[in-house]
Amino acid sequence: MSLLSTLNEDMKTAMKAKDKETLQVVRMLKAAIQNEQIKIGRDLNGEEELTVLSREMKQRRDSLSEFEKAERDDLAEKVKSEIIIVEKYMPEQLSEEEIRQIVAGAIAKTGATSPKEFGKVMGAVMPQVKGKADGNQVNAVVKELLQNHE
């Protein structure tokens, strides 16, 4: 079943349950996918759907950090609950140990020896962890392992 079909079913369920918050988030996700389809001019494949979901998740995580910096707990709580709903549609997230293994493999494969080669390593790692790990977490692991690799 495609993500769009799943979202439609969940939207119906949320309407019947009068779950306004879930309904709102599911509608936003559905709209984001439909907008991407219109932009591309065809139905999205699984990887493209994952890209849209990842972008939506990143926007919410960025909003959460901004709201927390501004001490806007009311808005931060709303975004936290949105993140929980979006996570239902994301693939299972990698553990930090799994990320470290992927990064170490990418460092060995690219032959990177210093933090100056950060971009090369990130370019090799990100396609492997797409949608399965937060980019900021991957970024931190790559920096740490490159620092230790010197």
UniProtKB/TrEMBL annotation:
Under the heading PANTHER family, the entry gives:
ALTERED INHERITANCE OF MITOCHONDRIA PROTEIN 41, MITOCHONDRIAL (PTHR28055:SF1)
Q: What is this protein called?
A: Glutamyl-tRNA(Gln) amidotransferase subunit E
* Gene3D superfamilies, A to Z: 1.10.10.410, Uncharacterised protein YqeY/AIM41 PF09424, N-terminal domain (1.10.1510.10)
Which source organism?
Answer: Enterococcus phoeniculicola ATCC BAA-412
- Give one GO molecular function term: transferase activity
InterPro entries tied to this protein? Asn/Gln_tRNA_amidoTrase-B-like, GatB_Yqey_C_2, YqeY/Aim41, YqeY/Aim41_N
Q: Does the keyword Transport apply?
A: no
Q: Which keywords does this chain's UniProt record carry?
A: Transferase
